[in-house]
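STRUCTURE:
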């Protein structure tokens, strides 16, 4: 299942409940649904980061010192 499919599924589940978002329970369900979506985005970002890290790792010795410094600085920003 792709990220887009997972997001659509979670959103559909939340919307399908028909919960009144003006109640305490409805607000809580909405917040939890939003947090799940944020977690999926974070997981997707981590997957991309891991793939990029593997690609850089294979070619690390071929990179110039400037490229290594830029890659390392980017890693610490994430």
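SEQUENCE:
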């Amino acid at each position: 299942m792709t990220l887009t499919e997972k997001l659509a599924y979670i959103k559909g589940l939340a919307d399908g409940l028909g919960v009144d978002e003006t109640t305490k329970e409805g607000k809580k369900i909405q917040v939890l649904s939003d947090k799940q979506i944020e977690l999926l985005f974070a997981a997707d970002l981590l997957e991309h980061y891991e793939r990029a890290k593997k690609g850089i790792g294979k070619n690390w010795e071929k990179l110039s010192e400037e490229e290594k410094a830029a890659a390392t600085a980017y890693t610490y920003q994430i």
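REMARK: The mean pLDDT is 78.
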